[in-house]
Known about the structure:
Layout: H1 11-23, H2 34-47, H3 56-66
Amino acid sequence: MNTLIIEPKNKADYQLFIDLAKRLNVKYREEIGVEEVTKEMDFFSLAGNFDLPETSEELVKSIEEARTSKNIDTKWAE
């Protein structure tokens, strides 16, 4: 089987090719381009990552230490 790779310049052309493939009942496969992967990697490098503690107790402790207010209103729970 032969493979045809088409690289449209905009989303409208891309959608046209997808619709044509569906209309012709042609098997097609969508792949993420290098630019898309780079954009996703840039987002995660900007957003950073969250290093989880080893245990749930350490996670609870880190959350409690990060609170800005130590006095929590619990009147609603009474």
